[in-house]
Amino acid sequence: MQQERCSSSNRPLDPGCLLECDAERSADRLGCAAVDFPVAVVLPAGGSGERMGLPTPKQFCTILNRPLISFTIQAFERLSWIGTVVVVVAKENHDLMLNVVQKFNHTKVKVVQGGTTRHRSIFNGLQAFSNTTDSPTPKPKVVIIHDAVRPFVEEDLLLKITLAAEEQGASGAIRPLVSTVIATTSEGYLDHSLERAKYRASEMPQGFLYDIIFQAYQRCSEFDFEFGTECLHLALQYCGTNAKLIEGPPTLWKVTYKRDLAAAEAIIKETLSTSACIIAGAEAEAVELAKTLQKNLNMTETDVIPCGKESNAEYLSKTRNFIHISATGSNFLSILEMVKRFEDTDHARLYPVVIVWVQLNMTKQSGDSQRTDNLTVFRSLASQVIQGNVLLYGIQIDHSKVPEQWERSVERLTQITAALIRDRNTALTGQLLHA
Length: 435
Description:
Elements: H1 26-34, E1 39-45, E2 62-63, E3 66-67, H2 68-77, E4 84-89, H3 94-103, E5 109-113, H4 118-126, E6 142-145, H5 155-168, E7 170-176, E8 182-184, E9 190-193, E10 200-209, H6 210-219, H7 222-227, H8 231-239, E11 244-247, H9 258-272, E12 275-280, H10 284-296, E13 301-306, H11 313-318, E14 321-327, H12 333-345, E15 353-361, H13 368-385, E16 390-398, H14 403-423, E17 432-434
Parallel strand pairs: 1-4, 1-6, 4-5, 7-11, 12-13, 12-14, 14-15, 15-16, 16-17
Antiparallel strand pairs: 2-3, 6-10, 7-10, 8-9
C-alpha cells in the first residue's frame, strides 16, 4: 500500500529563502508534454575528491578544456522542463564555480555554499528555494538530487524519475550489483554474504516532491546529517514515503578515480565524433574526394556540401566536425568565415569544434617557399582559433592519376581525418600532416 505523504508539522514547510543533445529532440518534446509542473535540480558538489588523488576536486577536473561539472549541468539545462539547477559547493570553490557558470554560459544555475557533510550540503541546496511567486528561484513541485560527477544521465531516465516522484512522492535509480556483498567479523574473517539477486545498488538521480524531502531534512537527526548518505531513506524514515525504484542504464556510473576521467573523456570524444560535414571546393577533384571520404568514414552521419552556399548555415550551427577540401594555394577566407560564425553563435563554447583543412595538391609543383608561407599562416590561424575552442588541423594530399597510389593516399587521409576528429588532440593543432 502506498505510504502517506508528509503532513504539516510545527516546522515551516517553506525554507523562506533559497551531455550534446539538443533541446529540440523528441525526448525533450515528450518531457514538455508530460511534465506540466515546476521541476528543479540540486547538485551537491562540495566533495574534496580524496579518492581521486589529485589536488583539484574531481568535479572541477577538465575534460576537453571543460570542467566535469559543466557537462553534468548541461545534461539538465538542455531540458526545457527543468527550471533551476542549484549547485552546492564548498566555500573555497564558490568563486571558481561562478567562473564556470559565466564561461560556459549556464543560464539556469544558482550557486550556494555547502555544508560539512553531504546531507548538510543537500539541505543547503533545498533551502535555496523560496515559496514566493516573485522569487527568481521559486519552490518547485519536484526536485531532482543528482551527483555532480555523473555527467551521462539520460533524458528518458530523468523523465521517469520526475514523473514517478510526482506520483509516489519519491523515486530513485538503481542498478544491479556487480559484486557480492559480504560481512566480516571484527577479526577480519568472513561472517556471511548477501544473496546478490535480492539487492540493488542505489544510484542517482533521485526525485522527490519538494515538500517531502525538505520536511524529511527538517526532521532528521544530527547523526543522519553527520553520517547518512541515502536521501531515499530519509524520506521513508521521517515522512513514511516509500520510493519507486527505477532501473537505470549503465551510463549512470560515477567519476570516482583518476582512471574514470580518462573513461569519461573517451565517451565524450566518441559521442562528438559520430558525424561530420564535408565542405568541397569548386574543383571537380575536390568534389570527388569529398564523396569518397563520405563513403569511407565510419560515422553515423556524414554530409557533403558545396563551399560558400547560404544554405550551409544550418550545418554550421549543428555540426561539431568539419572537413574542408580545397586545392593547394586556396586562402583561409572560408575557414575564417566559419570561425567567425562559431564566435557569433557561441557554437564552440560547450564542446570543441574540429576543422580539418585538406589541401589537395594537383600539380606537385608548389615550391618550398610557398609551402613555408602556407604553414606559417596556417599555424598562426590555428593558435588564434584554439582560444575559441576551435581545433584546426591540416592535411596535404597529392593527387595522383595512378589508381593504386591514389587509393593508398585516400585511405591514409581517411585514417588521419578520423583520428583527428575522434581524439581531438590539441597538441596537433596547427600542424600540417601529409597523406
